[in-house]
Amino acid sequence: MRVSNQSTFDAIKYQLAQAADSLVKANAIVSSGKKINNLSDDPIGMVQVLSLKESLSSMDQLGRNISTARNWLNGGETALGRVKRIITDMKTLCVQMANGTVGSSERAAAAAQVQGALEQVVSLANAQVNGQYIFAGTNTGTKPFAIQTGSSSTTVAYSGNDAPFSVKIGKNTSVQVGQSGQAVFGDGSTGIFKTLLDLKGYLEGNSVAGVQQCMTVLNSNLDQVSSAVSEIGAKGVQLDTKDKILQDMKLSYQTRKSSLQDADMVSAISDVTLRQTAYQAALASSAKVMRMSLVDYL
Question: pTM for this one?
Answer without folding.
Answer: 0.75
